Amino acid sequence: MENITSRKNEKVMHIKKLWGDRKYRYQCRQFVCDGEKLLKEAISNGAQIGWVFLCEDIETNLSGLECYRVSRELIEHMSPLKTAQSVIFSCNMPVREKSLESGSVILENIQDPGNVGTMIRTANALGLREVMLLGDCADIYNSKTMRAAMGAVFRQKICQIDYEDIQTIRDRGIDIFAAAMTDDCIEIDKADLSNCVFAIGNEGNGITKRLFDMCTGKIVIPMDPKCESLNASAAAAIIMWEMRRHQR
């Protein structure tokens, strides 16, 4: 296994730029992950792994992968974390085709990477068919998104959609419900979610008028009147659970 010692090594600089520059990630069609758990998830789910950087104190058998030994100081330089993991690796971005099926969720303009990652993880845990990203969502390959998703990015079907796809979903006879808090909303436990896609909007502004106008109904989660709202990922978890319950 080759040792890398310099911060100016081309591979080291490439990894550091992939982590910090979204545009560069998509130009290269590569992203970076950290930690032994995520590496195992990537391997078991057939991800195309590029380079693996192992800290000097890690012993593991990774035959067939292109591995490099680095110092603790260098891996901390490469990592965006205050406390770096002992493994960093790159992956090729998979081709993510869209199915536009019922039993899926739309995330519109969800900008917090932690929320996006948590929602992907929840969708995967509850067996949703697809997570559709609409508008200006946080990058699923952002390090914070990847960490919050806990490997679900490798397991869950995820796609990027546009507003024309919303009409395609409607044309297939699938209901699209919007999470909202308006007077004309149906309480979620009274709605038929057996053939639907659910839309969850931006943390601060909610769902855009454009998407609202394309939805077939509005759903609200019953709450104590003294409570103003739920965190976006907490609301999404409740919605996804209700969808799973209706679609059994």
Please supply descriptive tags for the structure shown above:
248 residues, alpha/beta, seven-stranded parallel beta sheet, five-stranded mixed beta sheet, 10 helices, 35% helix, elongated
Helix and strand topology:
Blueprint: E1 2-3, H1 10-20, H2 22-28, E2 30-34, H3 36-44, E3 49-55, E4 66-70, H4 72-78, E5 87-92, E6 104-108, H5 113-125, E7 131-134, H6 143-149, H7 152-155, E8 158-161, H8 163-171, E9 175-179, E10 186-187, E11 196-200, H9 209-214, E12 217-220, H10 232-246
Parallel strand pairs: 1-4, 3-4, 6-7, 6-11, 7-8, 9-11, 9-12, 10-12
Antiparallel strand pairs: 2-5, 3-5
Helix pairs in contact: 1-2, 5-6, 5-10
Structure report:
Helices cover 35% and strands 22% of the residues. The protein has 248 residues and is an alpha/beta fold. Strands 8-7-6-11-9-12-10 form a seven-stranded parallel beta sheet, with helices on both faces. It has a five-stranded mixed beta sheet with strand order 1-4-3-5-2, sandwiched between helices. Helix 1 crosses helix 2 (22-28), helix 5 packs parallel to helix 6 and helix 5 (113-125) packs parallel to helix 10. The longest helix has 15 residues, at 232-246. It is elongated and about 65 Å long.
